[in-house]
User: What shape does this take?
Amino acid sequence: MNLCVVGLQWGDEGKGKVVDILAEQSDIVVRYSGGANAGHTVVVGENRFALHLLPSGSIRPDTICVIANGVVVDPEVLTKGIERLGEKDISLDGRLFISENAHVVLDYHKKEDQLREESLGKNKLGTTIRGIGPCYADKVGRSYTVRMADFRDLEALKAKLQTIVEYKNKIFAAVYDAEPMSADEIFEKCKTYAEKFLPFLTDTTEFLHRAIANGKSILFEGAQGTLLDLDHGTFPFVTSSNSSSLGMPAGCGVPAKLVDKFIGVVKAYTTRVGAGPFPTEQDNETGQYIRDKGNEYGTTTGRPRRCGWFDAVAVSYAVTISAIDSVAMMHLDTLAGLKELKICRAYKINGQEKTFFPANTDKLLQASAVYETVPGWDEEITEVNDFHDLPMNAQSYICRIEEEIGKPITVIGVGPKRSQTIFR
Ligand code: GDP
Ligand code: IMO
Ligand code: MG
Assistant: This one.
């Protein structure tokens, strides 16, 4: 069975937890898009792991981990990630495979991300400043790029970096009046990365197709969420890759038809970090209640997340775009204690009700949410492990959302731990 797990909102839905659970029954876990902008949390016992580039299967000692061609790899973050696991006696030797075709995020990408965001002032996108946009832009531009395979020939890499950094420095000076960067310093770092990562490099496309031919089960781990997809999200307030499941085939060379099931992950409400439209946002006491109770602060940047009601219009769209078969709903526990809950079932745009999500930011900014109000529940549910033991109003909430989004909710999160999960 090959599975793909993908976020159906604006990221941070709880994909890390879901992937960690499903990885128990998978041979291989693959990250196929995004970079260190992702922060996937896995809680095992007293240990909390925040994974940025390593697949969430890496916590399990026998799981093979693949970082495929579609990922932009920040070697500094990857090094730290491997070290942090090492501190917990989790080794990746012999079970981590990195695509030689994956593009590398270097210091000038992060600098460019930061300078551009600063120069935009109040119009900034609110990126994670992890150099993601600049690195993918270089990939599309093709002329000034470093890929993982370039670590194999240090002499050629040195020359390449001279050319790239010279070009970048001209832009930094002319556009941002910023200090130049040193190609030599970046090269010195690359030398250490080469030493570390050469043993992990491979043709991951061949590796994955061989594994499929040998009957291995593969779990594809999405990063970000469908509404942050470069083409199908709330442009320009998106990330720079196809973070819906549409990015999976291109991001790892495995056709989508080889995936048996696409599993979408949502929160029982909605969150977003960074700028952009958010029709059900509650910039009020309710939003603060959710932020406090759900600990809604970014895994990567620590920023407070914007919080709001569940948006069935947005999620139904994401279900369609990402070809979702079933849904995992996390953070149901966070809603306990709210007297009433709201579910957005339509948008009102120019006086008309619309139920198909407009992937056009201008239209979306004009949308007001049309809500259905349902009763909440008081009981804490973090210890519940059977759907039928949930308060009746919590069960009804799940069933009502299933009707709206047209897909079964087969996994329910009632806390961050592996054990705090209900399977239906
Ligand atoms: P990801 O980017 O989709 O992997 O999600 P993040 O890890 O960025 O954010 C999800 C946060 O919610 C993490 O802190 C998780 O530990 C936590 N979490 C996941 N599922 C649940 C749940 O069902 N209930 C609660 N209270 N926390 C959860
Ligand atoms: P995971 O995988 C939530 C958001 C940023 C910003 C926009 C563009 O943990 O769900 P970028 O740095 O990608 O250029 O930023 O996208 N963003 C995320 N939000 N979760 C993520 O990843 C995100 N990755 C990027 O906040 O609004
Ligand atoms: Mg996250």
In short: Residues 103-199 form a domain with the Adenylosuccinate Synthetase, subunit A; domain 2 fold (CATH 1.10.300.10). The chain has two domains: 3-91+204-423, 103-199. The chain has a mean pLDDT of 97.
